[in-house]
């Protein structure tokens, strides 16, 4: 069986929300949610957390991370990209474990409402269809065909980003569009190393519900995530009650 690696990057010193990656969300540090979701997926040989902070790594270890990686200074700046961080983690984990992973999954710690099954099903898509990468998305609220404008330099005015033929009058007749939710990125090892980009040449999508797709960057996001979590709990409880009544 192909062995799989999960990487969770958590850099200290967030500007929008100081120390948001270890701030308590529903009773546990934010990063702990992603670590435990990766473990719950039950498909990874290694769940690695990469950070520039020893304190963050200790919190990740207590949450169950199987490998805690102190990243070098050049990967701890605002300009360091996720691809470089994941590449460093891949090399470090393969050297330490003396094994080669078939796929790499990146989980963003700022997406605490995904579930283990979302991770498992994303990886299954990569393996079943032979994609280079699979990205988690959610149905887009806005559409370039109907309500997204961009400046047209030729006419010096704002126009629809992607105008449709005159015969298409209803939004539901336009192509379906999705937005990246930033929660889950999965790559085959070969594509990750040869292409080195988030969206590879052959990319599939894994569609997640909007409430599970919350990405925390601001205090408003945090407040909405707490509300979304309560709504998800209520829906789960309602479903359990309905199932017992059948």
TrEMBL record:
Give UniProt keywords alphabetically. Answer: Nucleotidyltransferase, Transferase
The UniProt entry, under Pfam families, shows: CTP_transf_3
Recorded hits in SUPFAM superfamilies, A to Z, give: Nucleotide-diphospho-sugar transferases
Source species, domain of life: Bacteria
Q: What one GO molecular function would you report for this record?
A: N-acylneuraminate cytidylyltransferase activity
Q: Which CDD domains does the entry link to? A: CMP-NeuAc_Synthase
Please give the name of this protein.
N-acylneuraminate cytidylyltransferase
Natural source organism? Roseobacter litoralis (strain ATCC 49566 / DSM 6996 / JCM 21268 / NBRC 15278 / OCh 149)
Its lineage opens with: Bacteria, Pseudomonadati, Pseudomonadota, Alphaproteobacteria, Rhodobacterales
């Amino acid at each position: 069986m192909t062995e799989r690696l999960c990487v969770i990057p958590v850099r200290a010193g967030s500007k929008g929300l100081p120390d948001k990656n270890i701030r308590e969300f529903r009773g546990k540090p934010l990063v702990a949610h992603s670590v435990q979701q990766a473990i719950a997926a039950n498909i990874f040989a290694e769940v690695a957390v990469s950070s520039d902070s020893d304190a963050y790594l200790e919190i990740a270890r207590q949450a169950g991370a199987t490998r805690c990686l102190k990243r070098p200074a050049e990967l701890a700046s605002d300009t360091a990209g996720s691809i470089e961080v994941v590449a460093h983690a891949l090399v470090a984990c393969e050297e330490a474990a003396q094994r080669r992973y078939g796929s790499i999954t990146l989980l963003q710690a700022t997406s605490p409402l995904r579930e283990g099954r979302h991770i498992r099903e994303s990886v299954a898509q990569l393996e079943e269809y032979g994609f280079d990468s699979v990205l988690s998305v959610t149905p887009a609220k806005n559409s370039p065909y109907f309500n997204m404008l961009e400046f047209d330099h030729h006419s010096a005015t704002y126009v629809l980003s992607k105008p449709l033929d005159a015969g298409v009058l209803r939004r539901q007749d336009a192509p379906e569009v999705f937005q990246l939710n930033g929660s889950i990125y999965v790559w085959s090892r070969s594509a990750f190393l040869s292409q080195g980009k988030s969206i590879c040449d052959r990319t599939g999508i894994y569609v997640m519900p909007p409430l599970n797709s919350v990405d925390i960057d601001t205090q408003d996001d945090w407040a909405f995530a707490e509300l979304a979590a309560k709504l998800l709990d209520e829906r789960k409880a309602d479903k359990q009650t309905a199932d017992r009544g059948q």
